[in-house]
Every structure is written in structure tokens, then in C-alpha cells.
């Protein structure tokens, strides 16, 4: 493991502990400006998945908490639980008087754009969605690069010759994972003369299996069981909390493993799922948020997108944890070489959903 990934994972564990103590109801105006730096505060608005979604809401909040600790500023989160909360919550965040607003996910794109236009003196960042605005900085990740490694890994450990992926919705931040995963499997097949199949996603057609939401765990379990019934023994769910259903199905089935997304599921999911977690496709949202808040405080805010890559440490895959024994030294070395080749530009991972 590189020193950068080790430091990031330790920070993530520490931030997750802080999260348990810091989660709170939606803030009021009274909370603004109460930190040591009364001239700067920041607010975050979650999407409808809630704060502890074990996905990018949680990772984004951990990043804002790290910024609070590092810069001694006041931060808080406004939690959305339904789609009807989204627009009012962004308006509420603006109403706190804070000059930096962080929103999370495509569901908040329209509300973010509208409030940014109406409040040009406030700086906004939106996670996992690429939008245009003079005072909006997108935080996006080229997850295809990391899921390429995950796909190669999945093909390398599969005993059935079938792996699977499904998403919460057919949208670029989701299908980007699925494209990289499919290409990684194809690369393994090319390198080893194998014929591992990918169920649930057709990259050429840009279509596949989607649950239609990011919250219904029962759907995740049902879809995963269907893939298991077809012979898949490694599953990549790209569906937020729905993915917990995939992990539950894998536990019940035995001999099936899961690849988590956004953060290290080994640290964030219930302990009962640890035995089936092969790895996770990581987005280093935490460091990105800290960097952007720091730049904003220093008067260096720009609307140029932050794009996380393997090269800048914005994406990667997590350790293999309890399933490390299933990953041979040779396979691990091949994945390390693929990472180096992608960083060097020797291998290019393409997707129509690739952020620019």
C-alpha cells in the first residue's frame, strides 16, 4: 500500500469515528458563525439518502468535518430525507449566511444552480455532478480508472467465470463505475486468455440493470440473488444503500463476494458484511473537500472542476482485508502494474461518462 493511501485510510477511519459523535439535526441560523473564525462557516446539504448513507453523503460530511478541525471553522449539515426536502434545504443553507455551500449528488443540481445564480457572492461545490456556474465548483471522480482495477480483480478471483454489476440509476456517476468494471474484466480476459462474463451491464449499449433508486435494500438483495442464481460470484453494486442488500445476499449465499463503492465498506458497513467484502472503489471526497474549503478561505476559489484520478489520489481501490488470501501475489502485482500504467498514460480507461 502506498503511503498516500495509508494516510487517507487512517484519516477516513478517524473521520468516521468523529461522524458518530457529530451527526446532528438540521442547523438553524443560530449555528452560523459560532466557530473560532466568525468570518467563515460552511454548510452541507445531503441528497435524499441521508447523512449516514455509507456513500458520498457520509464521505462528504467527513471531509467537511476534517476541514472544521483543520481550519477551526463552523460547519453543519442539513439532511434531506425525501426529494421534496432538496430545494428548501439548499435555500435554508444559503439563509444561514455561510459563504460556502456544499451539495451532494445529481438530485441537488437544479437547486444548486438556481441558488448560485441568485447568490453570486456565495461559493458552491457539488459532489458527483458536473454543472456549470461562475460560483459552482464540481467535485467529480474518474471512478472508471479505479473500477477498471476492481474489474480485473473480480475476474481474477472469480471461480465461476461470471461477475455482475448493477446501478441505482442510468446516470453518468453510476455508469462510469460500470464502464470501468467491464473494461477491467475485458483486460483480464485479454491478458489470460479467459472468458469471464459481466452480467448486468452492456458497455457498448450503455444499458444494463438498475434498481431505480438508491435506498431500497430489499431491491439490492433481490437483484443480487438473481445474479447469483445465474452463476455470478463477485458483485459490484453502484447504488448507495441499496448495495447493502447485495452484501446481505452474498453473506447468505456463501462463496460470493462484493465490491463496495465510494468509501471503504469494510470500515463503514455493518461488521456482518466484512467477510464478503473483496475491496471497494474509493473516492477520496474527504481530501477534496478539505482542499476546496482551504482554497476558498484563502481567496483562491475557482469553478474549475476537481477531478479525482489515480494520479492525484482522488480514486483507488481499498485493501482486500479479510479476503486477501483469495488474491494471489501474481494477481496483486498485475493490478499494481495496471495502476502504474493508467497513471503513466500507457493504458487509457474511456467512458462516455468520463468527467472533463
Averaging pLDDT over every residue, what do you get?
89
CATH architecture of the largest domain: 3-Layer(aba) Sandwich
- Class inferred from helices and paired strands: alpha/beta
Number of strands: 14
Q: How many strands, what sense, and barrel or not for the largest sheet?
A: 6 strands, parallel
Poorly predicted residue ranges: 1-37
Strand order of the largest sheet: 2-1-3-4-5-13
CATH level-4 homologous superfamily of the largest domain: Response regulator
Account of the protein in words:
It contains eleven helices and 14 strands. By secondary structure, the protein is an alpha/beta fold. Strands 2-1-3-4-5-13 form a six-stranded parallel sheet, sandwiched between helices. Helix 1 packs across helix 2 and helix 2 packs across helix 10. It is globular. The model is unreliable at 1-37 (pLDDT under 50).
Looking at this protein, list some descriptive labels.
Rossmann fold; 11 helices; 14 strands; disordered N terminus; six-stranded parallel beta sheet; 2 domains; 356 residues; alpha/beta; six-stranded mixed beta sheet
Which helices and strands occur, and which strands form pairs?
Elements: H1 3-22, E1 41-45, H2 56-71, E2 74-78, H3 86-95, E3 100-104, H4 109-118, E4 123-127, E5 136-141, H5 143-157, E6 162-167, H6 172-192, E7 197-199, E8 201-202, E9 207-208, H7 217-229, E10 234-238, H8 243-253, E11 257-262, H9 265-268, E12 277-283, H10 285-297, E13 306-308, E14 315-317, H11 329-344
Parallel strand pairs: 1-2, 1-3, 3-4, 4-5, 5-13, 6-7, 6-10, 10-11, 11-12
Antiparallel strand pairs: 8-9, 12-14
Helix pairs in contact: 1-2, 2-10, 3-4, 5-6, 5-11, 7-8
Amino acid at each position: 500500500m502506498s503511503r498516500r493511501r495509508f494516510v487517507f485510510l487512517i484519516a477516513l477511519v478517524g473521520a468516521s469515528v468523529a461522524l458518530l459523535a457529530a451527526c446532528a439535526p438540521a442547523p438553524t441560523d443560530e449555528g452560523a458563525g459560532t466557530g473560532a473564525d466568525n468570518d467563515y462557516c460552511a454548510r452541507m446539504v445531503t441528497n435524499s439518502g441521508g447523512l449516514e448513507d455509507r456513500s458520498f453523503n457520509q464521505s462528504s460530511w467527513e471531509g467537511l468535518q476534517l476541514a472544521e478541525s483543520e481550519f477551526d471553522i463552523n460547519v453543519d449539515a442539513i439532511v434531506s430525507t425525501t426529494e421534496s426536502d432538496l430545494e428548501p434545504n439548499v435555500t435554508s443553507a444559503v439563509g444561514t449566511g455561510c459563504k460556502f455551500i456544499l451539495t451532494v449528488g445529481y438530485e441537488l443540481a437544479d437547486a444548486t444552480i438556481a441558488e448560485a445564480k441568485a447568490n453570486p457572492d456565495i461559493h458552491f461545490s457539488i459532489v458527483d455532478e458536473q454543472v456549470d456556474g461562475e460560483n459552482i465548483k464540481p467535485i467529480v471522480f474518474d471512478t472508471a480508472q479505479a473500477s477498471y482495477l476492481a474489474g480485473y480483480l473480480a475476474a481474477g478471483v472469480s471461480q465461476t467465470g461470471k461477475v455482475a454489476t448493477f446501478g441505482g440509476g442510468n446516470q453518468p456517476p453510476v455508469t462510469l463505475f460500470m464502464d470501468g468494471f467491464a473494461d477491467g474484466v475485458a483486460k483480464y480476459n485479454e491478458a489470460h486468455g479467459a472468458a469471464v462474463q459481466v452480467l448486468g451491464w452492456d458497455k457498448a449499449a450503455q444499458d444494463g440493470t438498475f434498481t431505480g433508486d438508491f435506498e431500497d435494500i430489499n431491491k439490492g438483495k433481490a437483484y443480487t440473488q438473481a445474479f447469483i442464481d445465474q452463476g455470478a460470484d463477485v458483485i459490484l453494486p453502484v447504488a448507495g444503500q441499496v448495495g447493502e442488500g447485495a452484501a446481505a445476499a452474498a453473506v447468505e449465499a456463501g462463496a460470493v463476494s462484493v465490491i463496495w463503492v465510494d468509501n471503504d465498506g469494510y470500515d463503514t458497513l455493518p461488521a456482518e458484511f466484512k467477510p464478503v467484502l473483496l475491496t471497494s472503489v474509493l473516492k477520496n471526497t474527504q481530501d477534496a473537500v478539505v482542499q476546496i474549503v482551504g482554497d476558498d478561505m484563502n481567496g483562491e476559489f475557482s469553478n474549475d472542476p476537481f477531478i479525482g484520478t489515480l494520479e492525484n489520489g482522488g480514486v483507488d481501490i481499498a485493501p482486500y482485508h479479510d479476503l486477501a488470501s483469495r488474491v494471489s501475489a501474481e494477481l496483486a502485482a498485475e493490478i499494481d502494474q495496471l495502476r502504474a500504467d493508467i497513471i503513466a498514460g500507457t493504458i487509457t480507461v474511456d467512458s462516455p461518462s468520463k468527467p472533463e
